[in-house]
Amino acid sequence: MINIILPVDFGSSTNTLVDAAIRFAKDMNGKICIIHVAPTDIGFAIGDMGFQYFPEMEQNEIKQELSILNEIETKIKAQGLECEHILRQGNAKETILDYADSKKAEYIVMGSHGRSGIYDVFVGSLTKDLTKNSHIPVLVIPCH
């Protein structure tokens, strides 16, 4: 059985991406390893007194994200596939690539929103970064 890394961001295309990963994992006899990379600044807010840290805000956000990951894992397991999930904080590209290495993954399944050009100049594209820097194949699913 091969490990397939599935990074999710809980955006509008997450369901499309999960469904495509399920089909791919069934075809490849794979286990889906879901990863969500949360930003390191959860719980910080700016106000009159500058930046302030609210640990309860961070805990609530992480609890909510773990709940969503559990729902996705349950959906995948209901399709007869093996699945696990993890939530990490950090730089998304590096964290995903490190996780793929630790799982000895054969593939990373990512979504493409169809954005390009000026958007990538200012915002960047995680999918684009991963395809450039990954030593394992990245399957890009069109989600637009």
Explain how this protein is built:
This protein has a single domain, classed as Rossmann fold, CATH 3.40.50. It is built from five helices and seven strands; from the N terminus they run βαβββαβαβααβ. It has helices spanning 14-28, 55-77, 92-102, 118-122, 126-133; strands spanning 2-7, 30-38, 44-47, 50-53, 83-89, 107-112, 138-142. The longest helix has 23 residues, at 55-77. It is globular, with a radius of gyration of 16 Å. It holds the Pfam family Usp.
Entry keywords:
alpha/beta, 5-stranded parallel β-sheet, Rossmann fold, 144 residues, 5 helices, 28% strand, two-stranded antiparallel sheet
Shape: globular
Q: Which sequence of strands runs across the widest sheet?
A: 5-2-1-6-7
Structural class: alpha/beta
Name the CATH homologous superfamily: HUPs
Helix content: 40-55%
Shape-level CATH architecture: 3-Layer(aba) Sandwich
Low-confidence stretches: 117-124
Strand composition percent: 25-35%
Query: How is the biggest beta sheet arranged?
Result: 5 strands, parallel
The CATH topology is: Rossmann fold
- The average pLDDT is 86
User: How do the helices and strands follow one another from N- to C-terminus?
Assistant: EHEEEHEHEHHE
Distance N terminus to C terminus? 30 Å
Report the CATH C-level class: Alpha Beta
Compute the number of helices.
5
> How many distinct beta strands?
7
Rounded to an integer in angstroms, the radius of gyration calculated over CA atoms is 16 Å
Give the number of domains: 1
Protein name: Nucleotide-binding universal stress protein, UspA family
Family: Belongs to the universal stress protein A family.
Pfam families: Usp
Domain UspA: 3-142
